[in-house]
Each structure stands twice: as structure tokens, then as C-alpha cells.
Amino acid sequence: MKVCIQRGSQEIGGSCVELESQSQRLLLDLGLPLNAEINDPKYLPQVRGLEGSDPTFQGILISHPHVDHFGLLAHIPDNIPVGMGAAARRILKAAKPFMPGNWPAPEQGWEYESEVPFDIGPFTITPFLVDHSAYDAYALLIEADGKRLFYSGDFRAHGRKSQLFDRIVQNPPKNIDVMLLEGSSLGRLDEDKQFPTESDIEEQFVDVFNVTNGLALVHCSAQNIDRVVSVLRASKRTGRKLVIDLYTAVVLEATGNKHIPQSDWGDVVLMVPQSQRVQIKKNGWFDKLRQHSRNRIFREKIHESPEKFTLLFRPLYQRDLTRGECLEGASFVYSQWEGYWERGEYDVVKRWLKKHGVQKQSIHTSGHASPADLKLFVEALKPNKVVPIHTFQPEQYEQLFPNVNTHGDGESWTV
Ligand SMILES: [Zn+2]
Q1: pLDDT-based confidence at 88, cuts 50/70/90?
Q2: How far is the CA of 133 from the centre of ligand 1 (A)?
Q3: pTM of the model as a whole
Q4: Could you give all domains of the chain from N- to C-terminal order, each with its CATH number?
Q5: Which end of the chain is more exposed for a tag (fewer CB within 10 A), N or C?
Q6: DSSP label of 13
Q7: 367 CA → ligand 1 middle, Å
Q8: How many A from CA of 204 to the centre of ligand 1?
Q9: Distance in angstroms (rounded) separating the CA atoms of residues 308 and 286
């Protein structure tokens, strides 16, 4: 089996790996680089067949629905099959109408079931469901030519699905020749430190909500389902209902999981921001709205008793909250990667908070395994070779793991 990391050997984002066996080829992920501000086709890697006319190109396997792993799918034709989890596919499709630009939502391709192998030409693929901040995320074991390559995807051991990590570590796939291992946390966390768990995050939310006299705002991604669960649990514990918009409602529904918060739960309410109302009218999404309107409220309700609500904040709520005078005694928790905030993506929100005298606080934990957990993982799977990917610190791998081999972007090598 031949391998070429097209992108990702020394960066986080834009992950893409090309595999070849018996002249047949596959891609693992087709992500948008982190520094690419728009979904620009100029970042497409030079892979034969991506234009859809090469029969030796079998298709693309996406590890999980984060743009740094699927973002460039927007630029490939529909006839190329794209594999992913069924819920991941539903989430991309549900999100699409709400997203600006060319949001990819591939219709056809393989559907993963954890630990159930399937064949693509000479390749046998076994997906393993993993704990990550994206819902329905997988590591992928690829077998071909009698060799076994394990692609970690993005994963962690401190989320709400940490048992998935324990499960692989206790019952690991054997005889791994090569492990392509993500190392997002290297350089960001010391070897002897751990990230807070998602349950720790829940406790921190409880502390903030308890001392907030007005509305509690939490700015996080609706697609970070673990986080939405933490916010809802903390809200219930502090006598608050969780306010979501229509986008969040359809994303939660798309998980297809009855244990994940839904718009018709007693402790969840829908409040549609004005700009989304315009969108609904323009696109005729009345069925969608009706379907999620069982617990619908309007901003007057929040104005009356803001202390009874936590709002899953999205910037499009700003105008409604200002006009509805909902910010008296409010708190604002930023609960996603600090980098977005620092590089200015939310400067409008920053100014808005300042104007209303609301302080920003941060409560967050990483979607990626700590260096110590990465070590546990490698010790359990015992690969013959560890190859860095999805990291800014490939040179740190040798200090942490045995049998490290570094391969640069565009370099072709054999397993
Ligand atoms: Zn990633």
C-alpha cells in the first residue's frame, strides 16, 4: 500500500491523505486549511481523479464533519462517492441551508458502522467510533496488500463519550503496521497535564449561571453536541431553560439520537431571531419551523424573566437581544476555540458586549487528546510505525512515542 500525506504532516487543518493499492486510490479526508478564510478551490490538493473522470479513483472517506476534514468537498463533482457516518451526513445536510457560501453535503457514498468492515476495491475499511467534539467521528483502519494502516482522525479521551477511548485501548486492533496519529495538543499542553473533562465544563457553567442575575449567554457551536449537552445539564441544575434557534434545532434533530437534547424537550425552548425569520419566509421553511415550534417563545418572555433562561448564543441574536432589552444582568461565556476570538472573527460581538457592559468569560475544553492520552493510545495499539499528522509539532513525536517516522506533504512512501 502506498501512502501520500497531501496536506497535514505539519499543520492542523486541511487534512488529506492519498492511499494506493493495485493502482486503485482512495482519499482520507479532504479538509480546508485552517488559514483559508473562504472555501477556496485553490487549496484542492493535486490528486488525479478529483475532477471525477478517473476510474482508478475510488472515492473519499471523511473521518468526521469538521471543515478542516471535509471543507474542500464543495469543489468535487457529485459522482465521487464520499464515505462518512450516517448521522454526520444528516448533520451536514441539515446545516446546509443555514450556511453561507458553498457548504458541502455529499449525497452518496459508504455509510460507517463502528467496527463493521467494508470493502472498496482492494481496500478493507473498518471504522471505529471515537470521542471528539464533532458528532459521529471515526478513526479508520485500512487494510490492503496484507498491510494495516490506522488513521486516528481527531479524537480525545475526556469528552462525554470517553468510554469509546477506553474501549479501543482495552481491546485494540492488532498488528498495526502504520499509525497516522493526530497531535493537535502537542505544543499546547504539557505532557503531565490533562484538559478539563466535559463534566468539569458542566460544573464551571453551573458556577457562572448561579451568580448570573439575568440571561446567561453561551457562545458555542451547535454542532459541538457534547457542549450543548453540558450547557443544558448546567441550565437544568440552575433552574433555567435552554433557548435555541432553528439552526440548532435542526442540527440536534439530525443526530437522530433521542438522548440528545431536542426542541420539544420540556427544558428547551425555540426563539427564532429576526434575521432567521426573514430567511424562513424567503425559503418557505414553514414546515421546518412548525415542526420545532412546540416550545416556541418570543423575546418579550426573556425580557420578563431573563434569569430563567440560558441562550445558546449565535451572533445573529444580537439585534433581538438589544431591541428586546434582554441584557440586564446578563453574563456571556465564550465556549469554543480562543483562536477565532483572537484573530478577530467575532469583533462585532466584542463591540456589542462592550456597549452593553457585559464581560466575556471563557469556559472550554479541547476536542483533542492530551499528550498523555496519545501516549496511552500508542502504547495500546503498538504500531510498528507512528507518522505525525494534524499537528504543528511533528518534531515532538519522537520524545513521546517509539518508532516515529516523519513524512512530509506530497512525499510518497510504502507501508
Ligand atoms: Zn481536525
Answers
A1: very high
A2: 10
A3: 0.95
A4: 2-190+367-414 (3.60.15.10), 198-362 (3.40.50.10710)
A5: C
A6: B
A7: 9
A8: 25
A9: 28
